Amino acid sequence: MKIFLDTANIDEIRKAFSLGVLDGVTTNPSLAAKENKNFDQLVKEILEVFKGTDGIVNLEVVSEKADDMTREGLKLANISKNVVVKIPCIEEGLKACKILSKAKVRVNVTLCFSASQALLAAKNGAYFISPFIGRLDDQNDNGMRVVEEIKKIYMNYSFKTQILVASVRTARQVVEAAVIGADVCTVPYGVFEKLYKHPLTDIGQKKFLEDWYSYKARFR
Ligand code: E4P
Predict the structure, then answer these.
(1) Measured between alpha carbons, how far is 212 from 215 in angstroms, rounded to an integer?
(2) Percent of the chain residues topping a pLDDT of 70
(3) Could you write out the DSSP letters of every residue in 111-141?
(4) What fold, for 2-217?
């Protein structure tokens, strides 16, 4: 399963990338708005991190009509081969998804909250579908159940669209996404750290080093 970082923060992206396990980044207008620099500069810095790799940088359109979304999507896709264009799962977005996908632009259909939305996105050639599981759970719904349904539907009909589990709140959800067989999971930096940090690892490592140095001291 690919791991993306769900942020537009360049420091977080650089730190996560340095571990060697990062496959890409998802941004959205709200994440960009948290940063203190203009969007072009932000995109330039993020793309620089993935230069020379297949890493994916998801950039979202903010237009509202299919024609405008298509134009904006083409512009974003032309910035770099690493860019995937995020399009919201609304009527105009589905139209734009079809046009862009036909033009060989990779589209991530975002703000997906149901398996029926995922079915239509796949029919229109989406490269990624992004079910927002955390926001569904917040509504007392079951985000992972939607991911399971999407997985089953895509397998039933051999859709190529990749499932990108988004709006993730916990490391446990990343494991659940992998068990279901999702293609990608995007996580905020706090969750990314929890994927590898474990208190028992830290305690074990501390003890190993203590024992090692007391052993060394005995034969000085
Ligand atoms: C995905 O592409 C989105 O950026 C993201 O996962 C939204 O998550 P949120 O519900 O934490 O805002």
Answers:
(1) 5
(2) 100
(3) EE-SHHHHHHHHHTT-SEEEEBHHHHHHTTS
(4) TIM Barrel (3.20.20)
Lining residues, ligand 1, CB within 6 Å: 6, 26, 28, 110, 130, 132, 134-135, 166-167, 186
Neighbouring C-alpha atoms within 13 Å toward the C-beta of 95: 11
Tokens (6 digits) for 28: 């959205």
Amino acid at 29: P
- Classified as helix, coil or strand, 87 is strand
Answer left, alpha or beta for residue 65, where phi above 0 means left and psi between -120 and 50 means alpha.
beta
Cα–Cα distance between 97 and 139 in angstroms, integer?
A: 27
Q: How far apart are CA 214 and CA 218, in angstroms?
A: 6
Whole-prediction pTM = 0.96
Give 86 Cα–ligand 1 centroid separation in angstroms: 12
Contact between 120 and 161 under an 8 Å Cβ cutoff? The reply is no
Beta strands 2-6 and 162-165, pairing class? unpaired
Catalytic residue, candidates 2, 51, 86, 216: 86
Spatial contact of 94 and 124, defined as CB atoms under 8 Å apart: yes
Q: What is the pLDDT of residues 147-182, one digit of tens each?
A: 999 999 999 999 999 999 999 999 999 999 999 999
Which residue minimizes the CA distance to atom 10 of ligand 1?
A: 167
Phi, psi of 213 (to 5 degrees): -70, -30
